[in-house]
Write a structure and sequence with these properties.
mainly beta, nine-stranded antiparallel sheet
Length: about 450
């Protein structure tokens, strides 16, 4: 296997494996999986350019008997290509993973695609999978891709995901962002595994995108969006899919003002965690250059506000995933990129956005330890950032050409290890242990 060269070395050598731009070289596809120094390989595509080379939006969870880990993610040839499907892989030792099997979705563009699958084990051990089922025909919102426009679909398994029921649709409540023509499907997406709230409900972050019906549509990355939370009210009763009860809270979502387009909101991908006192805390990505947060208390969600870091200032972050996880010891971990959307001369906050700017600003990946502050207006106090993974802006995948740090990640506590699972540049699925040495450094950051 050839040496893993740095970005600077690849540029100096004249881009031996090709380039995305004069700044972003491709790495050697045979050994690029090594760049993030993983401990575990879950899935690596056999050949670049195949129909399984885009792997994203990952969830990993132990089975209720703790004998296995299962991983679920969205796979396709390339993001936005129209052949999204949900796949599952499993392991009994944390290291050797089965080849991913398709649960539901498309291999070709003539089959309806399924996106963003997330698993939920009920108290009995039944496994439900929620996902976005692309709309078809007259139900499709004009101009909207099937991975962002469609129905809430579910499927369930009573044997840990080896076999599955027929899919079913659960109607989603309408909101003020939707097309008033109720025959048109909602524009929405989810991105992270649901948590249980203090009532025992499964709660999932939910992004609502404004319908083109309402007038001028601002393009990416300033798409008009709000966050909300999808709540499953009766899943522990193991209902048939048509009997599942859901709510969206708040029904018309929460907004974050877009500093460039007055009156618009860009608030996406809420990531909730349960606090020790029964409240919930949730981060979200924005176009402001900072992470925003909200708190669920007294039966409702607060208005959004910038999340404050160790130095008393808002935490810098581009428009990219910023998930929160609750650790086994009750503390919290925030995953973010530690820059305000401006990095190495690239700016991803403008409109139109600079070419490749989002690739560059989504990195490097940092961790930040948090502890509960019961008297604080912001009920989690965070420590200093810790640099965890840097892909060095080296690209991978001939179709996606992605050079970002990991995004849409998962965390597990299983068999004595805390493992960080991640799509590597939306190509490989890998795992990296958060060791006691790393935790010590995070704790030092929390102490100041």
């Amino acid at each position: 296997m050839e040496k893993l060269f740095s970005r600077e070395e690849l540029i100096q050598q004249g881009y031996p494996f090709g380039k995305v731009s004069d700044f972003i070289p491709f790495g050697n596809p045979e050994n690029e999986w090594m760049r993030s120094e993983p401990d575990v390989k879950v899935f690596i595509p056999e050949k670049d350019g195949g129909n399984n080379c885009d792997n994203c939006v990952l969830a990993v969870t132990p089975t209720p008997d703790s004998k296995e880990l299962i991983a679920v993610w969205t796979q396709s040839s390339v993001e936005g290509g129209g052949n999204n499907r949900i796949v599952i892989s499993r392991t009994s030792d944390g290291e050797n993973w089965s080849y991913p099997e398709v649960i539901v979705g498309a291999y070709t563009a003539d089959v309806p695609q399924s996106s963003w699958g997330m698993p939920m084990f009920t108290k009995s051990g039944r496994l439900y999978l929620l996902y976005l089922q692309a709309s078809e025909g007259e139900r499709q919102e004009p101009g909207m891709p099937g991975c962002l426009n469609g129905d809430l679909a579910l499927i369930y398994s009573d044997d840990m995901g080896h076999s599955w029921s027929k899919p079913g649709i659960v109607p989603l409540p309408r909101c003020d962002y939707d097309n008033p023509d109720t025959t048109k499907a909602k524009n929405w997406w989810n991105q992270q595994q649901p948590i249980r709230d203090a009532k025992g409900r499964f709660v999932c972050g939910f992004t609502m995108k404004r319908s083109p019906y309402w007038g001028e549509v601002v393009g990416y990355p300033h798409e008009v969006t709000k966050i909300a939370f999808l709540c499953f009210e009766n899943l522990d009763d193991d209902p048939e899919i048509e009997d599942i009860k859901i709510t969206i809270e708040p029904e018309n979502g929460l907004s974050v003002p877009d500093p460039m387009f007055e009156g618009n909101s860009v608030a996406q991908e809420a990531s909730p965690v349960l606090l020790p006192d029964g409240r919930m805390f949730a981060t979200m990505r924005t176009i402001t250059g900072y992470i925003y947060y909200t708190v669920y208390e007294n039966g409702s969600w607060r208005e959004t506000a910038p999340m404050i870091g160790h130095d008393g200032n808002p935490v810098p972050h581009p428009l990219g995933p910023c998930p929160m996880f609750r650790l086994a010891d009750g503390r919290f971990l925030c995953v973010f990129y530690n820059n305000p959307g401006k990095r190495l001369g690239f700016d991803s906050n403008g409109y139109p956005m600079m070419n490749q700017a989002m690739n560059v600003t989504r990195g490097p990946l940092h961790l930040m330890l948090g502890e509960f502050d019961k008297t604080g207006k912001q009920p989690i106090r965070f420590g200093k950032p810790y640099l965890f993974i840097d892909t060095d802006c080296v690209a991978l995948g001939m179709y996606k050409q992605c050079c970002t740090a990991p995004s849409y990640v998962a965390l597990t506590h299983w068999q004595g290890k805390t493992m960080f699972w991640y799509p590597d540049r939306k190509y490989n699925i890998l795992g990296k242990e958060i060791t006691s040495e790393i935790m010590t450094k995070l704790e030092e950051g929390l102490k100041g």
